[in-house]
Structures are given as structure tokens and as C-alpha cells.
Design a protein that fits this description.
By secondary structure, the chain is an alpha/beta fold. The chain contains 14 helices and 10 strands. It has one domain: Metal-dependent hydrolases (TIM Barrel, Alpha-Beta Barrel), CATH 3.20.20. Bound molecules: manganese (II) ion.
Length: 354
């Protein structure tokens, strides 16, 4: 039971009343939450780059927080969050076209995150590794180094990886990436599949509306389609122990994958990959979905109905989103206290062995 911070009835308030008061007066918080889509950046890479789509004041505040870990701890303290699992901001290493440069930068950024951020607040911070998938065998080695030597809890991959130039992509279901997945399965760590902006030569549908190119819209389309590729490829039949995390309550898949499954019944088998089971079965078994950036009770309830509370985890998507908005919503949203405890903390502890 979460502690009460403010209770005008002197302890006589029902749980429901406390929840209803939470937004208005800070009456209650779930404490010790764990959040896992929380980004950082560094002057050494400046992975997130200049962001011409964003308003200046918003993006300056974001940039400050990407680099200032002390501010992030203050944000967490204010919102009942015990642990952030950090990851490099998109497009990150995946956007580095040269394989040698990507390998060197990935090592540099993982070391930077471990030494300058996690080591400063070892009881509050953990990290996902960034991975130079331009050379998948090198990517597998960097994952192993980050997990075994730096204590990282898994990897976060920002969508497709550029190979040689900005219009060439490698997706995670392609045969050459198999060596990476074999290492993931061997190490037993989850992989967070995070969005990035569509390939420059595949943005025609957004012409005239460039504000749709990132988190407002295209991020979700990109990442949902990438996740469908993983499902249809048979990756989870070859490696049934893999656990892939999606943000933004599953990037719409809880709503759209049942229709995909329904319609693919009538499509020639050789036209939709090598998967052995129904697509929704993989979504329920191999995927975990986070609340990052989606503080919408209706959508959360739908997600619980589709995959169950055991496969949903609290996250913010900071600093692009603020826990000052997301945490009060989560602390008061209409789910059972058992589910709040699972989603807010216990599922992450189990998934990452925290
Ligand atoms: Mn994010």
C-alpha cells in the first residue's frame, strides 16, 4: 500500500477517495516506481542532434535534462520514482553510417553512461546499452561487454540501423542480425525497440506536415511495423526466450495486430514470413509494453485486456515527456492496486532482476 502524503480525513479516506484527490492536492503517490524509457545524451556524440521540429523553449529544457543527471534525480524524487533505466537518445548509434565509427561511439557512450551517470547514483540508475549493429557481430560483443563488465540490464535499439548512407536501412529481423539475437538470448536480457524518424527517402506521406515525422505520429508507425517484421519473421520461433519491450503502450499493436491476424488468414502463406504461431500470441508472450508518453486510462485498460498487467511496465519517456505529468496520472488511474504495483514496479524488478 503506498504511503499517504496528504489526507484531510486523518486516515479515514478510502483508497478510491485518495486516488480522486491525487491530481488536485498531491494527496497520494505510488512510491518506488521504476521507469525504463528514460533518455540521456552527451556532448561526445550529441546523439539526438539539433531538433528543428520542436519549439525552442521546449527543446532547450529537454537538452538540459538529457545531459544533467542531477536534474533527473530531482524529477524522480518529486514523482515517487526510485529507478530510471537510461538509454541514449534517438537516433543514437543507429544513425551513424560508418561501422567503425559506430563501434567506437557505442563503446564511448556506454562507458560515459556507466561512469558519469549510473556511477554517480548507483542506487537510482541503471542502463540499456547502445549497440553498433552496423556490424552485428561487433554489436553482440558490445552487448556482452556492457552487460558483463558495466552491469547494464539489456539493450535499447532505435529502429533501423543505417548501413553506409542515410537512405539505407537494416532491420532487426534480417539474417545478418541473427548473431546479435543469439547473444541476447544467451545473456537473457530484454531488448527495447525504440522509435526513430523514417528513412529520408520514405517520408513522402508526411510532405506538408513535417511535424508528424517524429513522436507525434511517424515514430509509432515505424516501430509498430518493425515489431510486426520481428513477429512474422519467425524470430521468436527460433529464439522463444527473447523478450522485446515496446514503448507507448505497444505503438498501437494491441489495437491493430488482431486485425492483421484476421486478414492474413486469407493471404498466401509465403507472403507473410515464416512465423509458426498466430501473431497476437507473440505479442502476449514475447513482448512487454510500457506506458511511456501515453497517459490515457482508456488505452491502458485496453492494453491490460489484450496482454495482461504482467506484461505492462510504467515508463515516462523523459525528458521528452515529464514525470510531472505522467506519474500523477499513473498514481491515480483506475486500475487495481495489485496491477498498479505490478506495472509501477514489480514487473520491472522481475524482468531485469533488480
Ligand atoms: Mn523515447
Amino acid at each position: 500500500m503506498p504511503p499517504v502524503r496528504f489526507d484531510p480525513t486523518g486516515g479515514q479516506m478510502t483508497e478510491e477517495c485518495r486516488r480522486n484527490h491525487a491530481h488536485k492536492n498531491g494527496g497520494i503517490k505510488m512510491l518506488k516506481k521504476i521507469a525504463l524509457e528514460e533518455h540521456y545524451d552527451s556532448p561526445g556524440l550529441w546523439a539526438s542532434g539539433p531538433h528543428e521540429l520542436m519549439k525552442k523553449d521546449y527543446f532547450e529544457a529537454v537538452q538540459e535534462r538529457l545531459k544533467n543527471i542531477d536534474l533527473r534525480i530531482e524529477d524522480m524524487d518529486r514523482n515517487g520514482i526510485e529507478t530510471y533505466i537510461l538509454s541514449l537518445a534517438q537516433p543514437g548509434i543507429e544513425g551513424v553510417c560508418d561501422a567503425g565509427t559506430a563501434a567506437a561511439k557505442a563503446k564511448e557512450m556506454n562507458d560515459y553512461c556507466a561512469e558519469k551517470m549510473v556511477a554517480k547514483y548507483p542506487t537510482r540508475l541503471r542502463a540499456f546499452a547502445c549497440i553498433p549493429l552496423q556490424d552485428p557481430a561487433q554489436g553482440a560483443r558490445e552487448l556482452e561487454r556492457a552487460v558483463k563488465e558495466l552491469g547494464f540490464v539489456g539493450a535499447l535499439i532505435n529502429g533501423y540501423t543505417n548501413i553506409g548512407d542515410v537512405n539505407t536501412a537494416q532491420y532487426l529481423d534480417e539474417p545478418q542480425v541473427e548473431v546479435f539475437w543469439a547473444k541476447v538470448e544467451e545473456l537473457g536480457v530484454p531488448v527495447y525497440l525504440h522509435p526513430r524518424i523514417p528513412l529520408p527517402n520514405q517520408q513522402r506521406i508526411y510532405e506538408g506536415y513535417p511535424g508528424l515525422l517524429d513522436s507525434a505520429w511517424a515514430f509509432g508507425v515505424e516501430t509498430a511495423t518493425h515489431a510486426v517484421r520481428l513477429i512474422l519473421s519467425g524470430l521468436f520461433d527460433r529464439h522463444p526466450g527473447l523478450r522485446v519491450i515496446l514503448g507507448h503502450l505497444g505503438e498501437g499493436l494491441t489495437f491493430t495486430l488482431p486485425r492483421l491476424e484476421h486478414r492474413l488468414r486469407h493471404t498466401k502463406k509465403e507472403l507473410h514470413g515464416a512465423h509458426e504461431k498466430a501473431p497476437t500470441e507473440y505479442l502476449r508472450k514475447n513482448f512487454y509494453l510500457t506506458t511511456s508518453g501515453t497517459f490515457r486510462s482508456q488505452a491502458l485498460l485496453d492494453t491490460i485486456l489484450e496482454v495482461g498487467a504482467d506484461h505492462i511496465l510504467f515508463s515516462v519517456d523523459s525528458p521528452y515527456e515529464t514525470p510531472d505529468e505522467l506519474a500523477p496520472w499513473f498514481d491515480a488511474c483506475p486500475i487495481s492496486e495489485n496491477d498498479r504495483q505490478k506495472i509501477g514496479r514489480d514487473n520491472a524488478r522481475a524482468l531485469f532482476g533488480l
